[in-house]
Known about the structure:
Bound molecules: orotidine-5'-monophosphate
Structural class: alpha/beta
Strand content: 5-15%
Domain Orotidine 5'-phosphate decarboxylase: 17-255
Keywords: Decarboxylase, Lyase, Pyrimidine biosynthesis
CATH superfamily: Aldolase class I
Family: Belongs to the OMP decarboxylase family. Type 2 subfamily.
EC number: 4.1.1.23
Active site: 95
CATH class: Alpha Beta
Amino acid sequence: MKFTDQLAAAQRGNDSLLCVGLDPEPGKFPAKWKGDADRIYDFCAAIVDATKDVACAFKPQIAYFAGNRAEDQLERLMAHIKRVAPSVPVILDAKRGDIGSTAEQYAREAFERYQADAVTLSPFMGFDSIEPWLRYSGKGLILLCRTSNPGGSDLQARQLANGDLLYEHVAKLAQGPWNTTGQLGLVVGATFPGEIARVRELAPTLPLLIPGVGAQGGDAEATVKAGFKPGGTIVVNSSRAVLYASSGDDFASAARAVAVQTRAALNAARSSYAAG
Ligand SMILES: O=C(O)c1cc(=O)[nH]c(=O)n1[C@@H]1O[C@H](COP(=O)(O)O)[C@@H](O)[C@H]1O
């Protein structure tokens, strides 16, 4: 099934716009596992089990696994998600971008080794760095556009000779000439609702991955208002606020409670939008 169809089905099935980000930091694990990188799989699997009927996607961030020499645990986690939540797509957050021959290897890593349904990519190296990924038909390719961090403005808000800001240009390319196969989406930070609205205007049909609610302070309601449109969905990611809702043995039930609360806030904003 295509990523966009999987996502639409999961959003309907779990009545959710919430993506649960899997950014495991052993130093923040509950006391019984604290500091133990061998428990990354156990921790993330418990979060998946507790939120699999609340999330429309999961987003493991590859650095948290690679940095802890835990790629094998990421493979096991991907297999676990496919087993217990087969209808919830997985976005591998890898932010890759490189020349074609290297991009081919990165694409093998994401889609063959880890079996991801979608991946985050940097568009900075241009279309030929995206092309190898397009050969994996139906997989989602989500390009960084207007990122959530303050330094995102350093380059993304620069004005080009044609008057567009760089992130606006990326949005236009992704909606238009680069989207030869319909696989592209865009990353826009929840910390910049004005820019989310502008990206939605320029890219009316692309799925927007919107990180930055929760720990980075982005507002759920403003995010939905700016980004959600019928025919143009959003996937709103929260990682730390869900994962580390409690540092006790109740961490999984606490994560679930925050996920349920966040889903409700997003849904309330979506219904008020639909009501006009
Ligand atoms: O591509 C991303 O997911 C991403 C893009 C962006 O602009 N900002 C951003 O925070 N992210 C990722 O989204 C997650 C945010 O985590 P929390 O701030 O803990 O919710 C991290 O995994 C980041 O790497």
